[in-house]
User: Fold this.
Amino acid sequence: MQAIDRGRGFTLVEVLIALGITAFVSAIAYTSLSTVIAGVESTRETIRRTVEVNRAWTIISRDLRQFVPRPVRDEFGEEEPALWGGPAARFPLSLTRAGWHNPVGHPRSNLQRVIYRVEDEALWRDTFAVLDRAGESEPQQVRLLDGVENFELGFLAGLDEVEAAEDSSTLDTRNWSDNWVPDTSAPGQSLAPPLAVEVRLQLEGWGEMRRLYALPPL
Assistant:
């Protein structure tokens, strides 16, 4: 009976087969791991973007719901309505709001002038330390949201413009005014605020988002 040579190693063919199997398993494992990592990163980016968008809407909602009908003077001494906006206005949206926190008790009003504008595909929120500005007044600028392709508004002038959409569950705002600006043919006449404002945000990768706000009654 022939003895088994226990010192015999693997043949070249066996080594190549083992290497091939190892490479195949490693490739599958790497692909699976890459897919999982990409999924995790995508989920994180979606969560981050969702938080940013929700934060922006929260701030916009707070400003409009705390609107007060207080006109202001701009840095040129001209009167600005308490709320105005649209393509024909100086800024897409300008308004005066209440509720400006004063935790250290500075001698100032709790009212604040807020301006929304779009620059470099970003929505900016500018605020001023005073309502009636001087020539040297500089706003505090906050980059509120990136990836903003468009920022539009609709203004409801009267209840006669309130119409239900075809599904009867929403309002039809197509006939609302795109601009809310003073009538240049009636100088000196103050601009009353609208009854409601619709904010439309066109976001990169998200499409259009809309919010409807009834302004506080005068």
User: Anything to note?
Assistant: Residues 34 and 40 are 10 Å apart (CA to CA). The mean pLDDT is 86. The first strand starts at residue 72 and ends at 73.
